[in-house]
Specification:
This is 23S rRNA (Guanosine(2251)-2'-O)-methyltransferase RlmB. Keywords: Methyltransferase, Transferase. The chain is α/β, with parallel strands linked by helices. It is built from nine helices and eleven strands.
Amino acid sequence: MIKEQLLYGVHALAEALHNGNPIDTIYLKKGLISPEVQSIKQMARTAGVPVKEVPIEKLNRLTRKAHQGCVAIASPIEYANLEQLVPMLYENGEIPFLIVLDELTDTRNFGAIARSAECFGCHGIVITQRNSVSVTADAVNASAGALLRIPVARVASLPRALTFLKESGIGLTAASERGTISCDKAIFEGPVALIMGNEHHGLSERSLALADQMVNIPMMGHISSLNVSVAAGILLFEITKQRLSL
């Protein structure tokens, strides 16, 4: 069981960012202005670490220590760089197999998807910096440790990341109830990235617009949709089944 680790105080956060320590999220007291805080924001922006300005009550709930209006959650992993991960896969003779999470928000779903992704041989997971889950201690525990074994890339712009994947020769498959192809009839030959949407509103229009194919999961019951982690497991299995037959 991994426990969440906190960093607090202006100098501790600045030192951690300067040293390149993996940080998941930084929380700053609303209205906090000083040269040190501006420096923290700049270093966080460069490192791709989300910064959230919150009421003092939020910080006090995170820790009772003297936090000076600055608290950060340490990341259990170092996030991968997508633009380095994909070329490395090709160089190693792999056929890239990725899963992209479009603003997924539930930690337990994230953990379950990561566990399935690792079991089915996925090479990496892509998440967004904003409005998204991240790799926290809770997520690692929910994944049964899978998030410590599979690379996770956190991107600032999902459309830019998807465009990069397309330009790298990776086919984009979007999972949607609006999909026109049944997943058992879809072709998953070659490099593939499976895109799964948010628990409540599904895939964004920007992701759907960039997808090469849009697939659905055929169902026979009266309930029209599956939990996203269950749907991801089904689709990851279908993709892996085809890859194993190549």
